Structure to design on (201 residues):
C-alpha cells in the first residue's frame, strides 16, 4: 500500500511513511470492508462517513509539515485511522467527532492500541476545541462551504491548517499563520463528506 499508492505518487516525508507502515488500516474497518482496507479508495465506516483513501491520508499528513513537538487538532475523528497516523508523529492530538457513535468507537480502538497522547471530544468541530487553546497544526477531514473562523483563531503562530472546502466542487486548502496574517494555498481537488454542525455552511 505505502510503496504503490503513496511513495509512487511522490510522498517523501519519512515520518509519514513510517507512521503509515506502522498503523494497521484494517483494524479501523469492520466486516467485509476489512478485505478492502488497503485498496486505493475511501471506505464507508457507517453513519454516512468514510475513511479516506491511503494517498489522501498521506498527502494531508505530509502537508501539515508535522514535527514531533507539535500539538495537533483534528476535526472529524471518524474511525480513528487518521488520528492514529497523526499520533505516531505529533506530541499531542486533540480530536473532535460530531457523531457520538463513531467518536466512542474510535476512542475504544485507539485506547486498545495503546495511544496515550490522544484526547477525545464529542461535539461540533466547526466551533474548534471547546477549551481556549492554540494548536500548532489543525487538520479537518470533512468539508465546510467556508472555513470556520474558530479554527483559524485556534491556530498558533507559524501554525498550519489543512482543510477541504466547498460543496459539489471541493479544494484542499492550506492556511499558514505568518505574524498577524494568514497565507492561503490551494493544494488539490478532493471529495470529502460535508461538514455537519451549526457552522458547516
Amino acid at each position: 500500500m505505502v510503496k504503490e499508492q503513496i511513495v509512487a505518487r511522490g510522498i517523501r516525508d519519512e515520518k509519514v511513511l513510517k507512521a503509515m507502515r506502522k498503523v494497521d488500516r484494517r483494524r479501523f474497518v469492520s466486516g467485509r470492508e476489512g478485505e478492502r482496507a488497503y485498496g486505493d479508495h475511501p471506505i464507508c465506516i457507517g453513519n454516512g462517513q468514510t475513511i479516506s483513501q491511503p494517498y489522501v491520508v498521506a498527502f494531508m499528513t505530509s502537508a501539515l509539515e508535522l514535527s514531533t513537538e507539535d500539538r495537533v487538532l483534528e476535526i472529524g475523528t471518524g474511525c480513528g485511522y487518521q488520528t492514529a497516523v497523526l499520533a505516531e508523529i505529533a506530541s499531542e492530538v486533540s480530536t473532535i467527532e460530531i457523531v457520538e457513535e463513531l467518536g466512542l468507537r474510535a476512542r475504544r480502538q485507539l485506547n486498545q492500541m495503546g495511544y496515550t497522547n490522544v484526547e477525545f471530544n464529542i461535539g461540533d468541530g466547526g466551533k474548534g476545541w471547546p477549551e481556549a487553546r492554540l494548536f500548532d497544526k489543525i487538520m479537518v477531514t470533512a468539508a465546510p462551504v467556508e472555513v470556520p473562523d474558530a479554527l483559524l483563531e485556534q491556530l498558533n503562530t507559524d501554525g498550519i491548517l489543512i482543510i477541504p472546502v466547498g460543496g459539489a466542487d471541493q479544494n484542499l486548502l492550506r492556511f499558514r499563520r505568518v505574524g498577524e496574517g494568514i497565507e492561503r494555498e490551494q493544494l488539490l481537488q478532493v471529495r470529502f463528506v460535508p461538514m455537519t454542525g451549526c457552522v458547516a455552511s
